[in-house]
Amino acid sequence: MKLTSAEIREKYLKFFEERGHKIVPSSSLIPENDPTTLFTGSGMQPMVPYLLGEKHPSGTRIVDSQKCFRAWDIEEVGDNTHTTFFEMLGNWSLGDYFKEEQIPWMFEFLVKKIGLDPNKLYFSVYKGTKEIWIWRDDTAEKLWKEQFKNVWVDAKSVDDVEENGMQWGRIFFYDEKENWWSRAGVPNKMPNWEPGGPDSEMFWDFWADLELHEKSEWKETHCNPACDCGRFLEIGNNVFMQYKKTAEWFLELENKNIDFGGWLERIAVALSDNPDVYMWDLFDGIRNKIEELTWKKYWENTNETLAFRVVMDHVRAATFLIWDGAVPSNKDQWYFTRRLIRRAIRFASHLWVEGWFIEKVASEVVDGYSSHYTDLAEKKAFILSEMEWEEKQFLSTLDKGLKEFDKLLKGFEIAFERSWKKIDTIAGPKAFKLYDTYGFPLEMTVELANEKGLKVDETGFAKAFEEHQAKSRAGAEQKFKWWLADDSTATTELHSATHLLLAWLNHVLGWDIHQKWSNITAERLRFDFNHDGKVERDILDKVEEFVNEAIQSGTKVTLTEMDKQKAMDEGVEWSFWEKYPDTVKVYSMVWNNGRTYSKELCWGPHVEATSDMWRFKIKKEEASSRGIRRIKAVLIKD
């Protein structure tokens, strides 16, 4: 009997725990205090500080299953592989073991622990780049060959697969475009300080037996594991971080790192030998609920299958985003939650859904994942309430918006009658009005326009958005990068100020006030917290007074690593205890007279003393979304 996804996840974590790794919980989908990115988009992202040298509180061997969300994949959803939300199984060696341990362990896990057929596994390795004096990864090749030999599978290496096809190979050499990792991309574009190294990707062949068949569609082609024909699926990648670029050449790092990332759902579909991720077991309840609500079947016809996939993916992703604090609204991460829900509603209309449905589908998401994410069930009522509210709000304006869209079309007809000049493009400001007034996501307007043979001025839409909102959607898309947050002095000072801000909000508004999100640059901080109703200026003045008192006191900022349960018992502030490892970092601001200004779980960076900060000033307090308020503040020099 094939393993379930939950069993694969559990076996993976247990496998590496038995090899000295500490299991750490998934980080939030909303990165803390990182203005360069909106979401956690890879398993590696929360680990970057430790890969660059910071000490991890749980040691040098780490394993986890990390939640990830990639907004740029929204438009790709509809085929059999793309999803916006996914889980990455990850194990890391932080200056500990290297290739000699990682490669045999991965092969053992895939083949012996979960039962993948080695005859359908393929691997890629780095072929070297002579121009920068880094040679082919013969070590990885040798280690993979040894693993295949142990299970009596011939493993031929191939150097020119892209030119000459598979050639009965099993281990393939690719250049730096395929098999080199650094945050800056290929090695010759790396900045001088950037660490990087070769990687080794792992592929599953869904139609391995067809290569022997005379009717195989790949018989006369140069198909290879790195192509996108659909035959192969990358299920994981081993990164061997072993080099550091200098001004002249690459040097080997003294402390080399291993980073493995494997898609849980891709490993699961490989095990079932079905390339459709939407037939994966964790989608079963979601898919069955949609079939029940629509009286349709997932495979009835192509268009409806696409609609099924969009609804399944988007509701799942929105469920996890709301759980991590991104409730639907028009700002920042919250906008993407709204976009997912409204796009799901739009595609559900192709399935002729009657009545409310979003919260019913989301309920299946919660139930399916609660065995691993136990606190997800505790937030179920809140998540479903947000889903229901967003669906209600959208449907209440949908008819009005469609009427407004019809008015646009009528206007085009009238203009044509008067001037005989055909208009085929909806102007940006008009498309923005549909978004701002009637809640139409841009892509919905584009879809409606395409159905009528029209286009939308998306550049004009982005300009209108930027003029009327603090941030344009186009600008938000550009923020989807995942290197370290700005750690300049100014940003560090503002980060420390958020701790003092939250501490006094607790005093004046109640101890149930918690941070929901923050965005900090060198110029300002934005801080979101749960609260119903406006915070009056006299309260904000008291908060300012407290923060500035703490700044003037010159209190030292101290870091303590402690057991998480001990931190909870001592009343350390944080909103998402379940998302942090057993050992946590606690930053304290305690004056020499014993007065505690702030004591909060965090990962830094911070000033050494509060006197390093300028005067704190709250510029604005406003609603961020339903039940969430936002404070914008700066540090100014008197």
What features would you describe in this structure?
The chain has 638 residues and is α+β, with helices and mostly antiparallel strands. The protein folds into four domains: 5-279, 2-Layer Sandwich (BirA Bifunctional Protein, domain 2), CATH 3.30.930; 285-423, no CATH class; 427-480, no CATH class; 489-636, Threonyl-trna Synthetase, Chain A, domain 2 (Threonyl-tRNA Synthetase, Chain A, domain 2, 2-Layer Sandwich), CATH 3.30.980. Helices cover 39% and strands 21% of the residues. The chain has 20 helices and 19 strands. Strands 1, 2, 3, 4, 5, 6, 7, 8, 9 and 10 form a ten-stranded mixed sheet that branches.
Largest sheet: 10 strands, mixed
CATH topology of the largest domain: BirA Bifunctional Protein, domain 2
CATH homologous superfamily identity of the largest domain: Bira Bifunctional Protein, Domain 2
Give the N-terminus to C-terminus distance in angstroms. 70 Å
CATH level-1 class of the largest domain: Alpha Beta
Radius of gyration: 27 Å
| Helical content (DSSP H or I, runs of 4+) | 25-40%
Q: Would you count the extended β strands for me?
A: 19
Task: Give the low-pLDDT segments.
Answer: 211-215, 469-473, 475-485
- Architecture (CATH level 2) name of the largest domain: 2-Layer Sandwich
